[in-house]
Amino acid sequence: MLNNIGLVGLLLMLLLTLGYYYAAFKSSWKGKLFFKNPHNGKLREAPIGFSWTTHFFWFFPALLRGHWLASLVMLFIGFVTGGLAWLVFPFFYNKFYVKNLIKEGFVAITTDANMAAIETYLGYEVPMLSAD
Question: How would DSSP label each residue in 60-94?
Answer without folding.
Answer: HHHHHTT-HHHHHHHHHHHHHTTTGGGGTHHHHHH
